[in-house]
Design brief:
Radius of gyration: 21 Å
CATH superfamily: NagB/RpiA/CoA transferase-like
Protein name: Lactate utilization protein C
Number of domains: 1
CATH class: Alpha Beta
CATH topology: Rossmann fold
Pfam families: LUD_dom
InterPro entries: FTHF_cligase-like_sf, LUD_dom, NagB/RpiA_transferase-like
Shape: globular
Structural class: alpha/beta
Organism: Streptomyces mexicanus
Length: 214
């Protein structure tokens, strides 16, 4: 007997005395959660996203479409980046004003190779204002999940207001569960029992979010 069969057997025995006409689980558990907390304008929702991103120690920038290439060039120069990893579907215009050598998102790249990349630039699938969370889903402008987990510096571009929602329920409606979803709330960090914070343990140490709107 396999472990799966043993577990299912225990479940069946536990449910043996449940009447056949008992209320179905889907009806017994109430799902009337709040979809969002309070009412906000679009501008207030974007401001809340920026506030919560900063609270998680992300660095937030604002730009319009025309100014984005110059801002990205500045951010890469500020970090003295010698290489930048670029997903295959990233808008080429975003890098029009920088000559930092570009690294392709390759399936055969090793963790050591990715660790030698200074920066990575991606788009995003959606951003959640109430939690200050950026969600990546592996789309062409975001690349493989690992390219945003190994390099030390991640620049993530969020289109405002199209990619900004107020709450997690609203974000889930836009996402496909079968895609490789990565939920990011600030740079990677952890704390030991004495609450000493260490950043960059299981993801980028520096997260810069650019809110781009016209």
């Amino acid at each position: 007997m396999s472990s799966r069969e043993r577990i299912l057997g225990r479940v069946r025995r536990a449910l043996a005395d449940v009447p056949a006409n008992d209320t179905p689980y889907e009806e017994a558990v109430h799902r009337d959660y709040l979809r969002r907390h309070g009412e906000r304008t679009v501008a207030q929702t974007v401001d809340l996203l920026a506030e919560n991103l900063v609270d998680y120690r992300a660095i937030v920038h604002r730009s319009d479409t025309a100014g984005l290439p110059g801002l990205i060039a500045h951010l890469l120069g500020e970090r003295d980046a010698k290489s930048v990893l670029v997903p295959p579907g990233l808008d080429a215009g975003w890098l029009a004003q920088t000559d930092v050598p570009r690294v392709e998102d390759r399936a055969e790249s090793t963790p050591d190779e990715l660790d030698h990349v200074d920066s990575v630039i991606t788009g995003c699938a959606v951003a959640v204002a109430e939690t200050g969370t950026i969600v990546l889903d592996g789309s062409p402008d975001q690349g493989r999940r690992r390219i945003t987990l190994v390099p030390d510096h991640h620049i993530c571009v969020v289109r405002v207001p199209d990619q900004v929602v107020a709450s997690v329920p609203e974000a889930l409606e836009r996402l496909t569960p079968s895609r490789p979803l990565t939920w990011i709330s600030g740079p990677s960090a952890t704390s030991d029992i004495e609450l000493d914070r260490v950043e960059g343990v299981h993801g980028p140490r520096i997260l810069e979010v650019v809110l781009v709107g016209d």
